[in-house]
UniProtKB/TrEMBL annotation:
InterPro entries: UCP032025. This is Lysophospholipase. Pfam families: DUF1489 (PF07370). It comes from Roseisalinus antarcticus.
Length: 143
């Protein structure tokens, strides 16, 4: 049993894993040391569990398609002077089995045993199925 604690988050505005990677390559989406980050209003209360090998699982078009290991949580204060949490990520994006998720706001905790599996070695570079087809296959339990 995998006891790792993870986060799941909607990747709003992205259509593909490649879109997510392209966004994270922009300076706006990076920390001063060049790592990708996602800024959120809420600071995870279970920080120590997340930093013990946890990942953020990205939901793209209703499907979890990939994950990134969480490196650290940084304080981020924007131009509005409000304290936020920057979830700093490993730049490596690991593709996972496509798993359906209903829409939700913010982020949600995800237990390790409930997380989608990583794609087997050699399948990471495969072209992704069209989102509609992947959703339909996931709904009937094929993927």
């Amino acid at each position: 049993m995998n006891s790792t604690l993870n986060l799941q988050k909607l990747s709003v505005g992205t259509e593909t894993v490649e879109d997510l990677a392209a966004w994270q390559a922009t300076r706006r989406a990076q920390t001063p040391d060049g790592l990708p980050r996602h800024v959120t209003r809420m600071w995870p209360k279970r920080e120590s569990e997340l930093l013990n090998g946890g990942s953020i699982y990205w939901v793209i078009k209703g499907l979890v398609l990939c994950r990134q290991r969480i490196e650290r949580l940084d304080e981020y204060i924007g131009a509005d002077e409000i304290r936020r949490c920057a979830i700093v990520l490993d730049p490596q994006i690991i593709r996972t089995t496509a798993t359906q998720r209903r829409p939700f706001q913010g982020w949600r905790y995800l237990k390790g045993e409930d997380a989608p599996r990583d794609l087997p070695a050699g399948r990471e570079a495969e072209e992704a199925l069209p989102p509609q087809l992947a959703a339909e296959l996931a709904a009937i339990g094929v993927i």
